[in-house]
Amino acid sequence: MAGLFEGKRGLITGVFNKQSIAWAIAERVMQEGGECGFTHMPDKPDDERKKNRGRVVKLVEDNPRCKFLEPMDVTNDDHVAAVMARCEAEFGSPASAGGIDFLLHSIAFAPPEDLKKDTVDCSREGFKHAMAISVHSLMALSSAAKPLLKPDASILTLTYYGGEKAVPGYNVMGVCKAALDATVKYLAYELGPQGVRVNALSAGPLQTISGRGAGVDAMLGLYEAMAPLGRNITHDEVGKSGAYLLSDMSSGVSGEILHLDGGYNAMGSPGRLLQGI
Ligand code: NAD
Description:
Blueprint: E1 9-12, H1 21-31, E2 35-40, H2 51-60, E3 66-71, H3 77-91, E4 100-105, H4 112-115, H5 124-145, E5 149-159, H6 171-191, E6 197-203, H7 209-213, H8 216-226, H9 235-246, E7 257-260, H10 272-275
Helix pairs in contact: 1-9, 3-5, 5-6
Nicotinamide-adenine-dinucleotide is lined by residues 14-16, 20-22, 41, 72-75, 106-109, 133, 158-160, 203, 205-206, 208-211, 216.
């Protein structure tokens, strides 16, 4: 049976290491026959070991479905343009009967000193930096990719419940996720006439580098106790739901925030936690 992504090609951003949500989704997409171009954070000029690149190379080097690996700081317009030029060289554009079928945005950052502060005390610079990387980057990538997106292409970003409700400790990143959720809806409206879908996957806590910085360790026990399923989600599950939203299986779904959290967001009280079960 042909895989879900057979003949489909696209761009995956946000792989830092094996634990990254972007990697869980990319693995599933490639297992299902998709071909992917990847980006990684550029290495610092004095980092002779090229650790950022090296970590991703280790993951993709033996996989023939990885078509390229390019450095990209998403706040640098030249980097974004270079990545899109590479996408066009590898995948073509709708003008040449090719183009991008899927685009994964799995990027977020807030300066640790601001992330740790109560939102009320967040600095102006920290706020701007967090919003530029975690929110505007979705606009920048979508805008740059627009001429290359196939008429039924799918754009997916990663969000978190802390953008809908106050989650103590998530702080400025919650404000970023609220803006990201709104961005998904505006982009869905604006790119809809081109046939392009834009959605977000709202994942429950997962052990990743960014997740640990945003306080997931404290959240894991709470989700286990409160979520209807009584457990946390897995990397495999985030891979499956991500692949669903990037694939034609979700055609007709756009502007959606899909919660993948064992049902945690459905609860209006601590439930079993209150009953001591
Ligand atoms: P991760 O650290 O593996 O991924 C974050 C990625 O952002 C990294 O690859 C990093 O290199 C990239 N990045 C940061 N600044 C960048 C920049 N300037 N330019 C380009 N790339 C940059 O962690 P993750 O948990 O896989 O995070 C991916 C997404 O999932 C984020 O948006 C995060 O907020 C979201 N998310 C995570 C969780 C969780 O519990 N881990 C839950 C819900 C949503």
